[in-house]
Design a protein that fits this description.
- The protein is of the alpha+beta class.
- It has one domain: Protein Transport Mog1p, Chain A, CATH 3.40.1000.70.
- The protein contains 7 helices and 10 strands.
- It has a 10-stranded antiparallel beta sheet with strand order 1-2-4-5-10-9-8-7-6-3, sandwiched between helices.
- It holds the Pfam family PknH_C.
- It comes from Nocardia aurantia.
- This is PknH-like extracellular domain-containing protein.
Length: 220
């Protein structure tokens, strides 16, 4: 089982975040019916996500606004290290949802996060996507240290960018202080919506992350 250090996975949130941002933590609950066209209706369910990643997912974390970005070194890698934070999504969205699914609360083999921000016009969504891609380009393949209490290093990472176009970014974040653990990431710009998917696991999770992003994007 793997434990993903807090901060780099876009769904890895602390208890303080749960308290401060209206997150709900759910274990194995039934999926409610959401209005067609809503962000929640577009997100893949925990059951379906488990089928995609090949593991039963029983624990989830939900958030209604982006988390604040964590401190990192070098500082110009902050966007690249926390891509679903308020540094990217900003505060001009009209709707936001972040959901993370895992096998368990504290240890897991897979951690899947879906994050969607909806804006009142396409330009604002495009600006958010541009912040993300610019941050990835600026950081490149530098070693990133995610800082925790008293600026102690929580974990170390390096990004590998696979695709970057006007509406799609695909990359993976390799954890340098762990064995064979990566977060496979996909970002999509679709009209006035910015979607991000991250699947953290051992082995190649990119095909599953891309397939999940395709499914969610088709419903937005």
């Amino acid at each position: 089982m793997a434990l993903l250090p807090r901060g780099f996975g876009i769904g890895a949130v602390s208890a303080a975040f749960v308290a401060a941002s209206g997150c709900s933590v759910v274990g194995g609950s039934a999926t409610p019916d959401y209005p067609a066209g809503s962000i929640d209706a577009a997100l893949m369910s925990m059951h379906d996500a488990g089928g995609r990643v090949g593991s039963a997912l029983w624990f989830r974390i939900d958030a209604g606004k982006p988390d604040a970005a964590q401190s990192v070194t070098p500082p110009d890698c902050q966007v690249a290290a926390t891509p679903a934070s308020d540094l990217v999504f900003g505060n001009s969205w009209t709707g936001f949802r972040l959901s993370t699914f895992q096998e368990n609360a504290n240890t897991w083999d897979h951690s899947l996060t879906q994050a969607v921000g909806r804006y009142d016009n396409a330009e604002r969504a495009r600006d958010a996507f541009a912040k993300l891609t610019q941050g990835l380009t600026t950081c490149g393949d530098k070693e990133i240290a995610v800082l925790g209490t008293a600026d102690a290093v929580d974990s170390k990472w390096r990004n590998h960018i696979d695709v970057s176009t006007g509406d799609t970014a695909r990359w993976n974040a390799e954890q340098l202080d762990a064995t064979d653990w990566r977060c496979y990431r996909e970002a999509r710009l679709k009209e006035a919506v910015l979607l991000q998917v991250a699947l953290c696991q051992s082995g190649n999770g990119q095909p599953a992350a891309t397939a999940i992003a395709d499914k969610v994007a088709a419903k937005l």
